[in-house]
Write a structure and sequence with these properties.
Elements: E1 8-13, H1 18-27, E2 32-37, H2 46-62, E3 67-71, H3 78-82, E4 86-90, H4 110-121, E5 125-126, E6 136-137, E7 147-148, H5 150-153, E8 160-161, E9 185-188, H6 197-201, H7 204-212, E10 219-222, E11 236-239, H8 244-252, E12 256-259, H9 268-275, E13 279-283, H10 288-292, E14 297-299, H11 304-315, H12 319-336, H13 339-353
Parallel strand pairs: 1-2, 1-3, 3-4, 4-5, 5-8, 9-10, 9-12, 10-11, 12-13, 13-14
Antiparallel strand pairs: 6-7
Helix pairs in contact: 7-11, 9-12
């Protein structure tokens, strides 16, 4: 290797998303990074996707690549571990749970669950976006088993588990934090078609019920699929996909951000809304209570009445209490989850596996099975 040439890594993922593109951009400063999207269609495309990935991996192996980062665990992480790559698997939510009642979670599918187990047992490191994804208790809903987390579903894991949360650029999410007119409740629910799986996962059913009981409060759902399929309600505005700037404007003009999800990893929308000064109302699920802390409300159970009560309680606070809370919400995200910190931790883990340094110390080792 040329002395000044950056080390080569591979990065694989099922489908592209904003947080994956952020990782790729950030890691490219320290590595020559080659990436591949695995999913190419429906289930019938799986053999074709595996063959394409095999050829791609072999070609890069011959070119000197030894480390693979896999975002989510799944079919796309099987070949990297099988071929002996040092594989660092980012657990991001769906790959840590099973909610058969709403058709959500990788572990509800036997074959996919086996693929995840095979990958995690042979991974070099496991990098959940929050520590709770290793093990958590589902007390919020009855839509899945009570015990959740990849350590619950997969035994025999030997790799170090190093939680590395997503990170956020506080400068990007900064307009309208102070002053300005704010009203109503905002929820980002990307890809949620009315009555579908994402609709239920994101808690839009109970949010809609809460909105029906608060006719004087405006609600905005953004990022949904086919907005025209949603019932027409005087106080509910339904919007499809928007640009980042449009999303910032919606957050800057909203009083409350609501995430009443049944399952989450480390929700980007919640953190971005808090950076924009929204007061959060979230469900008692995985990372969200820690993200919110004392800067909002957490509902204990999947109940529209509890959600309505939490929203009403925040809206009833006088302005002199709301404004400091908004500032604290912003500062709590900016200080705990800066983008640079995630990048530094990922780089440290990968370089440590290459023998170029030591991984950061915030890690846990799962007990031997």
């Amino acid at each position: 290797m040329t002395k000044n040439l950056k080390p080569r890594i591979l990065y694989v993922y099922p489908r592209s998303s904003t947080f994956i593109r952020r990782d790729l951009e950030a890691l490219s400063k320290d590595f020559r990074i080659h990436h591949q999207q695995f999913d190419r269609g429906g289930k019938w495309m799986l053999p074709f996707s595996l063959v394409l990935q095999l050829l791609w991996l072999v070609r890069h192996r011959m070119a000197g690549a030894r480390d693979v980062v896999g975002h989510f665990a799944g079919y796309h992480t099987v070949l990297p571990v099988l071929l002996g790559f040092r594989t660092h698997i980012i657990i991001a939510g769906n790959d840590s749970c099973s909610f058969p009642g709403i058709g959500h979670g990788s572990f509800r599918k036997p074959l996919l669950g086996k693929a995840i187990g095979f990958s995690l047992r042979r991974a070099a490191t496991i990098l959940p976006v929050h520590a709770s994804l290793a093990r958590f208790t589902n007390d919020y809903s009855d839509l899945g088993p009570r015990e959740q987390g990849f350590l619950h579903f997969v035994d025999g894991i030997r790799a170090a588990v190093i939680p590395i949360p997503y990170g956020f650029d506080a400068q990007t999410w900064s307009c309208g934090v102070e002053g300005g007119s704010r009203q109503g409740v905002l929820c980002v629910a990307a890809g949620a078609g009315f009555g579908g799986r994402a609709f239920l996962v994101k808690g839009l059913d109970i949010l809609s019920a809460a909105a029906a009981g608060m006719p004087d409060v405006p609600f905005t759902l953004v990022g949904v699929d086919t907005p025209g399929d949603y019932p027409v309600r005087a106080n509910v505005k339904v919007i499809g996909r928007v640009t980042p700037q449009q999303l910032r404007e919606l957050m800057a003009s909203s009083s409350i951000y609501c995430q009443a999800s049944v399952a989450e990893g480390f929700p980007n929308g919640l953190c971005e809304a808090m950076l924009m000064g929204c007061l959060p109302v979230v469900s008692n699920v995985t990372s969200m209570p820690e993200i919110v802390g004392a800067n909002g409300r957490v509902i204990a159970r999947r109940d529209p009445a509890l959600l309505r009560q939490a929203i009403a309680g925040l809206l009833a606070l006088p302005a002199e209490e709301q404004e400091p809370m908004r500032q604290r919400a912003r500062e709590s995200i900016a200080s705990r989850f800066p983008a640079a910190l995630r990048t530094d931790r990922l780089v440290a883990v990968i370089k440590a596996s290459m023998g170029m340094g030591k991984a950061e110390a915030h890690k846990t080792h799962p007990p031997a099975a």
